[in-house]
Amino acid sequence: KITHQLIQSGWKVSLKRVQRLMRELGIHSIIRKKYRPASNHEKVESRENLLKQDFSTTSINQKWSADITYIHTQKEGWTYLASVMDLYSRKIIGYSYGKQMTTSIVVNAFQQAMQNQQLKDGKGLILQTDLGTQYTSYEFENLLLQYHINHSYSRKGTPYDNSGIESFHATLKKEEVYLKHYKNFDDARLALFQYINGWYNRERIHGNINYLTPQQAEDQAKMLA
Asked: Which pLDDT does position 185 carry in this prediction?
């Protein structure tokens, strides 16, 4: 990614030269141990997985991915981030941050995604989530029905069924959360806003979308529509 960014900035460099210079300067990827919450041993009813790990798309607003992750703060302890990603652009199109892992945060994240994408009807759209109680709740399921959105569920214990959003949350942890000590909820909320809207969506390039930023990929899709 550094090589591509240097070339886009007008530098004539090769991948091997960039790798050599990175080694000399001590620049390397951030690797941190992932926090794993306690396992839930309650029996979970399986539901239909419509995507079956087929994340291919031809434009935006065809397949979305949603999930919740944990963010630690010094004052409030564990807090929770619910995110929604468009699998075409890899853009985070909606998110909600809360002190409790309730249905309301996934509802708020979804409604923000609908508003940001200016969708009044989601007919033909598939939303992939896990089997968490927030996503299988009556309130959330009924909301999807109102917008005519097809709900696809990951199999229990199979994160690859929702790898897009899982990858985003892992990246968020490595590049932002694990490098900071948030004093409180508001401190973390500001940092998450700056990372998602200021860096991830608008500045961070992705290899699987031809080294574009998510915002650039979305803008191109709108131009071709």
From this structure: 98
Burial 104-127 (b: 16+ CB within 10 A, else e): bbbbbbbebbbeebeeeebeebbb
Instruction: Report the C-alpha gap between 200 and 177 in whole angstroms.
Output: 13
110 touches 47 (CB < 8 A): no
Q: Which CATH class is domain 67-200?
A: alpha beta
Q: Would you say 53 and 75 are in contact if contact means Cβ atoms under 8 Å apart?
A: no
Whether 109 and 96 have beta carbons less than 8 Å apart is answered as: yes
Please state the pTM of the whole predicted model.
Answer: 0.83
Q: How far is CA 32 from the centre of its chain?
A: 18
- Predicted local confidence at residue 9, as pLDDT: 73
Contact (Cβ atoms closer than 8 angstroms) between residue 80 and residue 95: no
Q: What is the pLDDT of residue 12?
A: 78
Sequence spans of domains, the chain? 67-200
pLDDT digits (tens, 9 = 90+) for 33-90: 554 544 555 555 668 999 999 999 999 999 999 999 999 999 999 999 999 999 999 9
Q: What is the pLDDT of residue 31?
A: 57
Q: Give CA separation, 22 vs 65, 68, 157, 175, in Å.
A: 34, 34, 37, 18
Beta strands in the chain (DSSP E): 63-73, 77-86, 92-98, 126-129, 150-153
Q: Locate 175 and state its tokens.
A: 């590049």
Alpha carbons 38 and 12: distance in angstroms, whole number: 49
Q: How far apart are CA 41 and CA 200, in angstroms?
A: 34
Q: Which residues of the chain have pLDDT under 50?
A: 35, 37-38
